[in-house]
Amino acid sequence: MLSRISFSKTPLVPFKLTKTITVKCLSTSEILVPLKLSFAAYETPSETNKGNPFVILHGLFGSKQNWTSLSKAFHQKTSPQRKVIAIDLRNHGDSPHNKDHTYGHLAADLRQFLQDHDLQKIALMGHSMGGRCAMLFALKYPELVERLIVVDISPAATSPNLNELPKLFDILSNIKLPSNVPLSQARAVVDQQLAEYIADKSLRAFLLTNLIETDNQKYKWRINIPSLTSNFQSIARFPNVGDLKYLGDTLFIGGEKSDFIARIIHKFLGLKDQNIWTKRAMMAGSVEGSEPRGDARNS
Description:
Elements: E1 12-16, E2 21-22, E3 39-42, E4 54-57, H1 68-77, E5 84-87, H2 103-116, E6 122-127, H3 129-140, E7 145-151, H4 165-173, H5 183-194, H6 201-208, E8 211-213, E9 219-221, H7 225-230, H8 232-236, E10 245-246, E11 249-255, H9 260-269
Parallel strand pairs: 4-5, 4-6, 6-7, 7-11
Antiparallel strand pairs: 1-11, 2-10, 3-5, 8-9
Helix pairs in contact: 2-3
């Protein structure tokens, strides 16, 4: 029987690392077959002297669509002005579905994307699941990453709230999707069902961005629920990567009341909080819409 669930929200605070992140783990020999990813690019054709492109990776249940407004703002306000590229990771948004979904596969997809679009170096930001993909990519291909921003996630032990996330897959799988009605009505019908299990209206609205129309007013979830469910343990843990290092500038952004900041400091740096961040920026709610925060809070 499905139970009612909720996720906490916390403000966000950025801080800079002053030392290198080194992850010491065992390596893996899995064969990674990259997929062609969907993306949205924001640029002005007449621009000259641009910086390296700024690539954004969304989180679990998210898509490039969630970053549309921020992508436009980043493009307009960065100096030097950069092309901004928001990507749909595999099994999300408009990118292909596949039975495999590990951070190794996500990083391989991103590597293929850079090759396909002749991108020599990028500034890279990832949120939540996308943040772990960004960390692994920077560790594996440091020569391709000018600088790294990781939002709402860490490679450290994850939050106990993470155990709530698989329940969302069960809830979505058990929703009775309507047909022969307009999209607005379909979302209202599905929202009413979701409300039986999820009290947070903004979280329901975020999940509903994944409800899409197929043919003749039939509807489906555009995320690959079976694959994400079967691979969830791979999503929940940062992968084994050996003694890889990333020496570039790195910024972590996390919830002000989340203890993942302290754990990052003590686990990877051995420094006290006041030596890490230089300013506080209070931001209500989540960065990417109202994405569930169980994989970031207290991690």
